[in-house]
Every structure is written in structure tokens, then in C-alpha cells.
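Chain A, query sequence.
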Amino acid sequence: MSGYDIIAMAAALLCALAVLPGTLGILMLTNKIAADAAGARLIYQHSIKVLILSAILILIAIYQSTSNGSMSLALWGSVVVYTGVCIFGFLMHARFLFKPVRKPIFISVESALKKFGPDEEVVGVFDSTGKPYAFVTRLARRPHIVYQPDGDTPFIMTHCILSHSSMAYEMEGKFKQPDIIITAAMANNMVFYERSNQCAMTQLHNQLLGADFDRKLLPTIGVNLKTWKALYPDSQVWIRDKDWRDTFYLKLFARADAIDPDSPVLVYPLQNKLDDREAMKSFVLGVELDNQYKAYPVSIFENDHLVHDEIGTTSLLLVAAYDNDYIQIFNRNVEGPTLAFVSGKTNDYFLDNETRSQWNMQGLCTAGDYEGTQLERITHYNKIFWFVWADYHPQTTIFGRESESAASAAAA
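Chain A, predicted structure.
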């Protein structure tokens, strides 16, 4: 075995070390490493240097061997392995599979209805000025990350297929020019790596691991297109063209039973024991306020489309409409007073007890003393799977069953 054979074998090994840790199959086995900021830096930044070094070494070995008149079997084998690793990386590396959308394309709601139909699920995002945007959920499942960079209030929308959670983050402060990519999934939720600040972050915990600041969350909801059009007819809907990776990823790897509410299948192990206070994949609204956590099962709206509650110092109004497809949470405190509300004569508005002003389902007062006032939307996890919410917030309470803890339920 010549020295060039050894160089070629070393190049193939270095290529594997640079490429394979960031590929989907390996990430599912080593997700804890990728979820760590140091591990993510190794996979997504330092690995490029290692890959370049391996390319130089394999080219030197090939050039010198061919210059001497022949290539040995060992060198040929190293070249085949090197090429195979590169092809596998091109198909499976998270850098390519989950490349964020940075130049979004928006169309009118009417055009989206014609293209996708009324039952297509969308994620609604409200920027810091309250302007609504919709994103086709099905198309967001693979990139997971969509930038909305235009205007004075840019933001990033993220969607996790495993937990059915969609969150949006305002691009401001130290997060003004973020560069985020998917690194892994932990306990059925996404982990990102933010290259500008060199830190990891989870979608469900608003934390940047290794950084000294939090992201500013924006309100989101999940509804179908028909409902969205009724609520926000003049808004725009994000779409994208499909490519071959959609078929490759969504059909081969995004198992339908993993996202089916009626299926008990989990992709990743839980951090804690399964909390059976609610059906595993039932939808809940998860709220974090004043270091308190509460879940509101969608089922509570079967008999009443207005629900009042308080968490810490915040008074809440939960509003459901359109057969409970639309559920939003508002702050009941308006310019000082805390209001209470009752249903109107029709299902498209409600009244406050104090002034009998009329409010629409979007939280805007359309008539009365408060006309023109918008209720503050409370940022929350809209229609997230119960088992994921409870796993990340084991101390969570459930509306109407506040005295019932996970431990007491398990003991019963």
C-alpha cells in the first residue's frame, strides 16, 4: 500500500466525518450532539473546512497516482467511498433538505383558494403591527423555516411537523439578521442553529442556548383557507413550487402516522413519562405567562365560543368561531379596565359587559365606546399536540382542571 493510498483513505474518512453527522439518518441517532451549540458549530461550520481538506487530499492522491501510471484498488475504493458519501450528503444533509426560504412568494387569498381549495391548512402570522400573513402549512413542512424579510417588521415563520407547532419570531435587535438552519429534533420538536450568534435554539422553548437574549414571539394561529379568507380577505398567502426533495422527504421520511392525530406513533422518545390527562395527539392551546403554563383543550369550545380566564396578572379571553377552526386568545385589559364579554345575537361578534361595545372575532371593536380599539393578541402555541406540550411543560395545568397535576393523574 502506497502513501497515496493512505492519503486517499484518510480523505474518504475525513469526508465521512464532515458530511455524515449532518445527514438526516445520522441526526436521528445523534440528535443530542446536533442540538448542542458546540455540536452544531462542528456540523454546520467547521465541517466545511474538513470537507475542503478532504477534497484537496483526494485530488492530490488521484493526481499523483495517475502521474505514476496507475491507480491501485485501495485508491479506487477510497474514491468510490468518497463519491458515495458526497452523493448521500447531497440527498440527506439537513443543509439541503431543510434549506430556509429566504425570498418568499405571496399570492392573494382568492388565488390560493383556487389553487389549494377551502380545506387547505394555513398558518396565520401577525407581525408587530398586526398585519396578517398566511403560510400554507403543507408546503412549510419540509423547509420548516420561511423568512418574511420585507417591510419595517420582518419576521421568520417556523413550523414543526412532529409537534404540529408553528411559531414566528420578529427580526429585531440581536436577532435582526438571523441565519438559522435546522440541526436536529429533540423530543418531537425542532432545534435550530443560529449561525450569526453561534447558538442553538429550540422552537418550543424561547431560548437561544449560548446567547444572552430571547427572541420576540409573534402571534400565530392555524386555520383552513376558507376561514382565513373570511377573517382576512385582503391578506396574502405564502406558497412555493414543489421540487424533488418534497417527494423524497415527505413521502419517505415524514411518516403520515407520526402526524396523524389518531395514531399513537412517535418519532422521538419523550423527555418525561407520557402525560395521559388528555388524548395524546389532541390539540391544545398552550400558554406561557408569568412563568406559568396552561393548556386549553380545543374541546372546551364545544359548548361556548367565549372563555374567560386569568394567568398570573393577565386576564384572557379565548374566542372560537367557524366551527372552532379559528381559536384566538386576547388580553381583556383595555386602556386600564379589564373587560368581560358575552356573545352577540349572531356568531360573528361579541359584546363587552361594561359598555356594550361590539367586537368582531378578530378582536377589533367595530361599534361603541371602544370603536377602533384592537384587543391585544396573546402569543401562544395554537393547536399543538398535547403530548409535546406536556412533555416540554410537565408542570402545565389544564383549564377547568387546575388542581389536577400530571403526578396526581398518573397515581389515580
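The chain has three domains: 3-97, 105-259, 283-411. The longest helix spans residues 37-67.
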